[in-house]
């Protein structure tokens, strides 16, 4: 998050310009500077002596959280958020890896932290962002409310003396989340690249629709705050409100994960946004986009949609703009400056264009390590130089125009054996299914079924109840045509569950549909009822 020095610079230049909007709260740069100064100095006085100092938050988006993040960043303390929808096991594992000295929680998620045994008498600063501490002092833990921090005296916060570190967490779809560690900062270089390429400036108003615990949320917000622009916090689950904010607040840039973007461009109120809004840059990521979303975004928002691909371990690596995305909807984009993408065969040899394999990335944004395991790095002579690549969990291909097309992921319910990539274009199949007029949304899950072995489980939502039977037949036929090597079990569902960051909740979805499947050899299943 932005630090106090940059906040004060903007406050001196335009004190009454709005920096952060959160509902009815409109925080000017002068107010922002005052609040961050007070909170940072108070945290400095209460900070435990334990080093390295690290901060974690479990809280929904709010201006109070933005101030808290800016305050700890101003003290040189790395700050990372945890997915409060992940459950106690994943949360406890993340806390144990991070070992924070500052814990920031909102009332809504306080019970989750306590269920994980925190603070548990540890020597930490425990900040209640929207409530008062309850109960007696807990050992060496210092508990304080954000309100108390805010009424402290302003001053000049002094950064703690410790080596630079930055942390983030993987989504944990293949188990507990892994903590990603970086020991050098790449922010200045990436900031310069993005600002130069997309002409962002201080007049931009950026809408945040993802939780700030997701790296993309504070990462993109920081760009516009650093420029002196305005950041607006919006709800990810209310398309009508997002559309209102875009119009009323003069939003010019935003990042929306695919499910949120799909809801916005499907809403009747978005029909004329291309004429009634200031939007000039809309970014999406998290998974591939289907043609329906791309076409609707073009019609309703104008030629503003960009798609990026990156991972927690590698940063933002490829990008594709609206014109190219419109004619090549299954592509993720071309490598951005400072990034090299290569596709490898099972022996980790580079494959020619058009061949599917495991995606490996070389980048100045690469992680240094995981907290508890070693990353899958390799050194490779490619493109006329020797580079250090990280082998990702994704499979894909490079097309003839040099664009990356992702075809599947090796994490979650779809696992590759012996580290080899999937041999099925899962994302291509999903794109084909989403082109069917009877399908509203779908997810293709590759798993192992008892008595069957490797198979595809394909939940889909029909566009209307009366289209369920025709939808089932069309989806089944497409699966058989596109992936004849695996049996496909198709099942209609009311909806596909997504996380706030746009990921399909694959384990939850699979658990809910397995009892509905007719798991018998294909020749013994009735076409009318199989999987229904």
Verbal overview:
The protein has 532 residues and is α/β, with parallel strands linked by helices. Strand 14 (305-311) and strand 15 (315-320) form a beta hairpin. Helix 1 runs antiparallel to helix 2 (29-46), helix 2 crosses helix 3 (63-74) and helix 10 (258-266) packs across helix 12. It is 30% helix and 25% strand. It is globular and about 70 Å long. It contains 16 helices and 26 strands.
Give the SSE map:
Blueprint: H1 4-13, E1 18-22, E2 25-28, H2 29-46, E3 55-58, H3 63-74, E4 79-81, H4 88-98, E5 102-105, H5 110-115, E6 125-128, E7 142-145, H6 146-150, E8 166-169, E9 179-182, H7 187-198, E10 205-208, H8 216-227, E11 230-233, H9 239-248, E12 253-255, H10 258-266, H11 273-276, E13 281-284, H12 291-301, E14 305-311, E15 315-320, H13 322-327, E16 334-335, E17 339-344, E18 357-363, E19 369-370, E20 377-382, E21 385-398, E22 404-409, H14 426-434, E23 439-442, E24 445-449, E25 453-462, H15 468-482, E26 488-492, H16 506-513
Parallel strand pairs: 1-11, 3-4, 3-5, 5-6, 6-7, 10-11, 10-12, 12-13, 13-14, 25-26
Antiparallel strand pairs: 1-2, 8-9, 9-19, 14-15, 15-16, 17-18, 18-21, 20-21, 21-22, 23-25, 24-25
């Amino acid at each position: 998050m932005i630090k106090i020095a940059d906040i004060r610079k903007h406050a001196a230049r335009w004190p009454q310009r709005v920096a952060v909007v959160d509902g009815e709260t409109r925080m000017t740069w002068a107010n922002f500077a005052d609040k961050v100064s007070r909170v940072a100095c108070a945290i400095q006085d209460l900070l435990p002596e334990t080093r390295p100092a690290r901060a974690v938050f479990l809280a929904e988006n709010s201006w109070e959280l933005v101030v808290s993040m800016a305050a700890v960043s101003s003290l040189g303390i790395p700050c990372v958020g945890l997915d409060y929808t992940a459950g106690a096991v994943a949360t406890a594992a993340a806390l144990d890896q991070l070992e924070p000295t500052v814990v920031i929680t909102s009332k809504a998620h306080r019970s989750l932290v306590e269920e994980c045994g925190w603070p548990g008498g540890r020597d930490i600063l425990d900040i209640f962002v929207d409530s008062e501490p309850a109960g007696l002092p807990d050992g060496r833990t210092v508990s304080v409310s954000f309100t108390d921090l805010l009424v402290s005296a302003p001053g000049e916060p002094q950064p703690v003396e410790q080596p630079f570190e930055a942390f983030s967490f993987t989504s944990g779809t293949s188990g507990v989340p892994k903590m990603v560690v970086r020991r050098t900062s790449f922010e200045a270089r990436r900031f310069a690249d993005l600002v130069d390429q997309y002409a962002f400036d201080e007049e931009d108003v950026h809408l945040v629709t993802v939780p700030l615990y997701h790296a993309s949320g504070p990462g993109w917000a920081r760009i516009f705050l650093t420029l002196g622009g305005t950041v607006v916090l919006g709800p990810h689950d209310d398309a009508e409100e997002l559309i209102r904010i875009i119009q009323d607040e003069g939003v010019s840039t935003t990042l929306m994960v695919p499910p949120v973007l799909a809801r916005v461009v499907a809403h009747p109120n978005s029909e004329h946004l291309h004429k009634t809004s200031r939007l000039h840059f809309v970014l999406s990521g998290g998974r591939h986009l289907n043609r329906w979303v791309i076409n609707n975004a073009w019609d309703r928002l104008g030629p503003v949609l960009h798609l990026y691909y990156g991972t927690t371990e590698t940063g933002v690596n490829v990008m594709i703009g609206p014109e190219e995305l419109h004619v090549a909807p299954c592509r993720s984009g071309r490598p951005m400056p400072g990034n090299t993408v290569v596709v490898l065969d099972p022996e980790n040899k580079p494959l020619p264009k058009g061949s599917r394999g495991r995606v490996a990335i070389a980048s100045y944004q690469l992680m240094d390590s995981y907290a508890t395991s070693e990353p899958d790095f390799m050194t490779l002579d490619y493109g006329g130089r020797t580079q250090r690549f990280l082998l990702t969990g994704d499979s894909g291909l490079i097309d003839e125009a040099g664009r990356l097309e992702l075809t599947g992921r090796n994490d979650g319910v779809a696992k590759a054996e012996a580290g080899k990539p999937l041999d099925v274009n899962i994302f291509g199949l999903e794109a084909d299914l989403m082109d069917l007029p009877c399908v509203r949304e779908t997810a293709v899950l590759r798993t192992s079924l008892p008595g069957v072995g490797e198979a595809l489980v394909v939940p889909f939502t029909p566009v209307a109840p009366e289209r369920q039977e025709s939808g089932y037949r069309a989806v089944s036929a497409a699966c058989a045509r596109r992936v004849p090597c695996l049996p496909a079990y198709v099942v209609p569902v009311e909806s596909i569950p997504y996380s706030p960051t746009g990921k399909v909740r694959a384990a939850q979805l699979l658990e809910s549909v397995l009892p509905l499947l007719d798991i018998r050899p294909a020749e013994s299943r009735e076409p009318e009822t199989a999987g229904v």
